[in-house]
Write a structure and sequence with these properties.
Elements (H helix, E strand, L loop, with lengths): L1 H9 L3 H33 L4 H49 L3 H7 L1 H25 L2 H16 L4 H45 L1 H6 L3 H53 L5 H42 L21 E8 L9 E8 L4 E5 L6 H6 L9 E6 L2 E2 L5 H7 E4 L8 E2 H5 L8 H10 L3 H6 L7 E2 L8 H14 L4 E5 L7 H14 L4 E5 L3 H4 L4 E6 L2 E6 L1 H7 L1 H16 L1
Parallel strand pairs: 3-10, 3-11, 6-9, 9-10
Antiparallel strand pairs: 1-2, 1-4, 4-5, 7-8, 11-12
Helix pairs in contact: 1-3, 2-3, 2-6, 2-10, 3-5, 5-10, 6-10, 7-9, 7-10, 9-10, 14-16, 19-20
The structure holds 5-Methyluridine triphosphate and magnesium ion.
Length: 577
């Protein structure tokens, strides 16, 4: 997956990558050339007192050093650009994919892990890409070139290379192998800690209400200690890592000077060659170290790439039709024909054999106990889910054959759990229709019985809404969501229990205003209170996913025992209150 991702998402940046390879090649070769020039100055120039030679070779050295610096900078520059653009595109890819997900697809993963995959996991892969571009070319060339150059300086000392490099590889490799599982464990512990913290923050009121703070603190404490333990183990290994590497480097240096010094004494080697040899050995060891670090990043990034790939590979379960049918009329007639539906993974269907028609200008109400399937029924029209069998038609065309925009333009839904976005009231109201005028907004607010409280706010339409709309009351949020639906002037309104948080008087006023506003629209209302739905043209009584009775309020009072029960229970409830 890692390779596939890198290949697919780095394609547009190939020119950058070629530039990186070129500049790194240049800078590595320059870096490899420097010690040998240095040796020449010492051995040819200094020893013979040839000032001219020193100046000339020194000049060359200066130029080579300049080339090395400039190309190294250019390499890092292009590498960073390519890696960052790669990360941006990958993140965008994940984001686009997730926004195309249906409710079902999101549920398969869960929101928190989708967030982690779109941010942290992408970051890991991006990091590998950056490191890879900065070191992948340089490291092997430095290693092989360094060995070659070192041997050119002195063959007799070559055994020092063959000893020190494997020792370094073994030591660093051992530490890395020990570290890998710890890193993976750490990632999981972080996930868990995040999960617990998230749950506690969201449920803080419940925690307080049930006085569960000590228990929750314990739960968090345990996860926190887990993470700390792993981090400490990692720390302990890292503490070893740097002294170990330092030790190998210093012992190698001492060995080169010791054995090389003897050869210089014996006149078998020149001082310059010795310094050059030493520098080459250090370059090789550095390269080996970088290579090992790189190798360490690959498994981690590849786990992340797999997680990203899982998201990218999902076939969205709601397919857009490729040959959309253009409806002849756009009045907003809704028809359900023998519709059945089950949630993925559930055995029993939540809806069975649902058939009804809602004509423009009509109000159809759905009533039924909690869990009867009312919300599920509404979800089928805007295609949050697709029916398992039967057909859901909008203006005579199955919704599966309509272009998505055809549906969203004509259908507005006020969900049971009203949701507002962080931003201003205005920003939320214009969500479905950015070009709406202020008058239209106020008009919608007036109908939704929300104008008064918005006007009372200091900033009016510009008042801030916090994330999820938590700084307005439940009833206010509901009314703002109704206004948001009204602004789009749809042909079909779906109200899912949208009047439940309103008192009876406001509920009545809202519905009267709505009636005038939605005179020729199709309205489908899910309601709990009989008073909310009593004046509907048609009432569907839903029980266990089936329509058990249908008719007007008066008809149902006569004919439907289920409806009578509901009415009676509410009357007694009112009497009790
Ligand atoms: C009907 C199940 C739920 C219930 C049945 C939304 C949702 C529901 N269900 C799922 O399995 N997954 C889901 O995402 O479906 O649920 P409903 O349609 O929400 O019922 P309702 O709207 O009539 O109930 P209420 O409480 O809003 O009046 O068995 O488990
Ligand atoms: Mg519901």
């Amino acid at each position: 997956m890692l390779v596939t991702l890198i290949r697919r998402y780095s394609k547009p940046y190939l020119p950058y990558i070629w530039a990186v390879i070129f500049f790194q090649l240049a800078s590595t070769i320059a870096a490899l050339y420097l010690p040998s020039l240095n040796a020449q100055i010492i051995d040819e120039g200094v020893s013979r007192g040839d000032t001219d030679y020193i100046w000339r070779t020194g000049g060359v050295m200066l130029v080579v050093a300049l080339v090395q610096v400039v190309t190294a900078i250019a390499g890092v520059y292009f590498g960073s650009r390519a890696a960052m653009a790669f990360g941006r595109d990958l993140r965008r890819g994940v984001f686009r994919q997730v926004t195309s997900f249906s409710a079902k697809d999101v549920n398969v993963f869960g929101a928190p892990t989708l967030i982690t995959r779109g941010t942290n996991d992408v970051q890991q892969v991006q990091m590998l890409m950056l490191m890879g571009l900065n070191f992948m070319v340089a490291t092997p060339i430095m290693c092989i070139g360094g060995i070659f150059m070192a041997l050119r300086e002195d063959l007799n000392l070559s055994w020092l290379v063959w000893v020190s490099v494997p020792v370094l590889v073994v030591v660093v490799g051992y530490l890395v192998v020990r570290l890998m599982p710890l890193f993976r464990a750490m990632q999981k512990k972080i996930d868990r800690l995040n999960g617990i913290l998230r749950e506690q923050i969201i449920g803080i009121r419940v925690v307080r209400a049930f006085v569960r703070e000590p228990h929750e603190a314990e739960r968090f404490g345990a996860a926190n200690k887990d993470l700390t333990d792993v981090s400490l183990k990692i720390g302990a290994l890292f503490v070893l890592m740097f002294p170990a590497i330092g030790m190998i480097l210093h012992v190698s240096t001492a060995a080169v000077l010791w054995f090389g010094g003897q050869r210089v004494d014996a006149g078998e080697m020149q001082v310059g060659a010795l310094t050059a040899f030493l520098q080459y050995l250090l370059q090789i060891l550095m390269a080996v170290m970088m290579g090992t670090f790189m190798a360490m990043m690959i498994p981690r990034a590849s786990v992340c790439a797999d997680r990203i790939g899982e998201v990218l590979d999902v076939e969205p379960s709601i397919h857009e039709t490729l040959t959309p049918v253009a409806p002849v009329e756009k009045a907003g007639r809704v028809e359900f024909r023998n519709v059945s539906f089950a949630y993925p993974g559930a055995e029993a269907p939540v809806l069975s054999d649902i058939s009804f028609t809602a004509e423009p200008g009509q109000t159809v109400a759905i009533i039924g106990s909690t869990g009867a399937g009312k919300t599920s029924l509404l979800a089928l029209l805007p295609r949050l889910y697709d029916a398992a069998s039967g057909e859901v038609l909008l203006d005579g065309v199955p919704v599966t054959d309509l272009d998505r925009s055809e549906i969203t333009q004509r259908v507005a839904m006020v969900p049971q759990r009203p949701y507002l976005f962080s931003g201003t009231i205005e920003h939320n109201l214009r969500f479905g229709k950015p070009e709406a005028t202020d008058e239209q907004l106020w008009d919608a607010l007036t109908v939704a019985q929300a104008a008064d409280f918005v006007r009372e706010k200091k900033n009016g339409l510009g008042s801030r809404i916090s994330q999820g709309g938590t700084n307005v009351s439940g009833g206010q949020r509901q009314r703002l969501c109704i206004a948001r639906a009204l602004v789009t002037e749809p042909k079909v309104f779906l109200f899912d229990d949208s009047f439940s948080a309103l008192d009876v008087a406001t509920d009545a006023r809202l519905r009267r205003a709505l009636k005038a506003k939605t005179a020729d629209a199709t309205v489908i209302i899910v309601g709990q209170r009989v008073s909310t739905i009593a004046d509907a043209d048609q009432i569907l009584v839903l029980d266990n996913g089936r329509i058990v009775d249908r008719g007007t309020h008066d008809e149902l009072l006569q004919s439907s025992s289920t409806y009578q029960e509901i009415v009676e229970s509410q009357l007694t409830a009112e009497a009790v209150a």
